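Support case: user asked for a sample of complex input and structure output to validate their parser. Sending the pair below.
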Amino acid sequence: MSTPTSESSDRYAGERLKLSPFYPRQEELNIREAWSAWNGYKFAEYYYDTEYEYFCVRNLCGTYDICPMQKYEIRGADAAAMLNRMVTRDIGRIRLDRVAYSVWCTDEGRMIDDGTIFRLAEDRFMLTCGAPCTAWLARSAFGYDDVTVTDITDDLAALSLQGPTSCAVLKKMGLEGIEQAKPFDIRHFPYRGESLMVSRTGFTGDLGYELWIPRHLGLQMWDDLYAAGADYGIQPYGEAATNMARLEAGFIMPAMEFNEALRTVHFEHDQTPFELNLGWLVDFRKPHFNGRSALLEEKRRGPKYTLTKLDVEGNRPADGSYIYANRRCTREVGYVTSAMWSPAVKANIALAMIRTEYLDGPLWAEIYYEKELRQYSRVARCMRRDKPFWTPARARATPPPDY
Amino acid sequence: MKRYDAVVIGAGHNGLANAAYLAKAGLEVVVLEKNDYIGGAAVSRELHEGWTYSNCSYVCSMMRQAIHRDLDLARHGLLLVPYLGTVNFGDGDERLFSYHDEEAAHLELKRHSPHDADAMHRFQTDLMRYSQLIRKTLMRTPPDPTSFRPRDVMEILYLAKQFWSLGEKELYEYVRFFTMSAADFLEDYFENELIKGAMASPGIIGTALGVYSPGSAYILLHHVMGDVDGNIGAWGLARGGMGAISQAIASALREHGGEIRTEAGVQQILVENGKAVGVALENGDEIRAGIVVSNLDAKRTFTQIMDRSDLPDGIYEKAKHFKIRGSSGKVNIALSGMPKFTGVPDNPYLNRGGQAFTGTLETMERAYDCWKRGRWSDDPFIESVIPSAWDPTVAPPGQHWMSNFIQYCPPKLADGPWTPEQRDAFGQTVIDKIERYSPGFRDLIVHMEVRTPHEIENEIGLTEGNIFQGELTIDQLFFNRPFPGYGQYRMPVKNLYMSGSSTHPGGGVSAACGANSAREILRDLRRPNTVPVDDFSDE
């Protein structure tokens, strides 16, 4: 593990952030010094310009460092059974070299986190998630004889490549047959004496892939990818652009759309999968799993709130707005979780948690904004949208187009 | 023979937008285009295999967001990508880099002049104030100042209120601004010649004026008041070239049931009993319609496809003298690689923006002198952009195309008509100038398309090759556009309307002219309005 300066001469060594294996290149490219942190790693908020990076993802391609994302290897004869007990989806239905998105809940059916599960062998899985869940995995493995959970976060270098030219770049890099990979497929390629794993996954709603390689080859892979991508507009993008892209795709973020159940102090200030519109991830046909009975009850009763996609009148983002059922803003029925002006869709989009019984009625957002130090507000009509705001055909096409 | 509710002449982006809004209101609409492709001056064509040029207009900032959103042009395939990083080239080694980042931009100006770096804040604030006022009028029909109809009176009051909110001092400044030259305007802020040259260049683009000519300050504003996603002054590229804008609007039009016919040039607008009743095509066919909308420029409409005897007195003369002087050329060049420019660091962000070969105010004025004498400029002002650095769809990977807009190039040469040889010589002048700043540039050329005003007029029908369908000078703006008394899209013959850039708010790929015109037509037909209002809540 590398730290910025491991010598004891650095008296602050103990509180410095860890560095990604890609850091030498990121440092050079982050000319705005716009750093934040993710899971203990120094992490770029943006590198050059948020909007520029966002447009690379929508128009060319960009890379997003997913080294800080937590990765666990779960192996053993009981691995599938253990995961099946823990998450809401049916592990038995995930075929070899396929990825599935899932959530996991407390016994009360409140969501702990979401993540992706990679089936790498009959008895070997990789689970990835945004925040560490070592303790919960240990608890979930309790009672299973043949399962070992290993945190492999720091053993791997992982990079997400997203955008319309991403497939062309991988082809240029020599990954033969990558264009045949369907969404959520995994492919393995020999690479400098090791194996490069590529999954057709991502967090942008667009065509994209994620690359996984032993950590010591990370920087080399970055260089090879960037050499291949030079004529395809490759550019690193940070947290800010990711947040724009995922909102257009309608994807949820922890601490925005949901509050992790194990970190929630107040009663029902966490969420259920049904509230987050993720009921399709809950498979009641499989044997018992965490939260099953609570979720069955929730399904029968219907969720109290429903995460809803909104197209908001005007162009002021409805950040932090309350949602009302009437224009006079006296009947409050929900709150906005994320909002932005979408440059690609040309719409003022938002995700909002809305009390389910008010979903079909009129919805109004009260939006506050500042103009040269003075506060203004406006009330804007909101239209519900069922589909994600951004769903290009190329994201589903196999083989995908070159741009 | 089918009778349409409306026939629109010319499938430029404004004609298509006009038709789309009429079709959205339930009208049966047909758009007639003389060429075998649509788009007018917002067009993308593949003239050399693998390369798609934006043959005429090449960047955009005026496109009305309200229309983009309302017609759901994103779903119809339109993506506008803002581009960054223009380099201004001085006559010698001086370079001015424009950075998107505020701190970087300030430091760069300071390198040239600490005074101007500070002055830039005041300049941009003033421009922003002026822009905001004009921007509010883009999607509104100008009032008739002589009319006492409640609608016109209300509109005048609205405008008065907007002007009044500037405050007394700024009101004077504003009025002065409209009659100033770009050079005089800039002298009030800047001292550095390179910076003045760089800031002045939008003041002459597409116009037969020089930087010292009164009126060029407004042209400057016209070029910086646009926006991309609310970032006023930003410019964007359409993915797939500017034709993608026309194609997306056409797709929306078809979805609403509208028709487009190509290779259907209009010979004559048919007028019976003082009313427009349809058109006669060049192939002899007639198309009858309840109303006729001309998306052609005012001069072409009234002097070429109308019978003079169908027009009220004076209109033919007004059209004949409508100021629509061609002043610019366009050279599109396919390149086998990315050109390198002297004095520009190897910063990929800078090299992916635009190049403006501006020199000083003096350089640009000398270039104008050539135009006055009926020659193309021997040291022209060139505004270039390399769209392929941003758009993966317009050139093969690793290869590029460069759009070059050249000022000045006259519609008629002093020593005779344009010939293919003269056109090529003009192209060589442009390449020679670029080569001066990019040694080896010539060796990268794979293909080129040279367009003088002569080609622009003959191919896409802009009289004299004027890119704005008429000069943007105050005598031809707002309620004076195209002529005093006809600023509300209704033309002197009943049931005849105009929708192109010869009407308010003028040139640029905004779709506002077409949409505004549709709103007036729907009002006359007593149909519900389908045209959105511009939203300024972000300003």
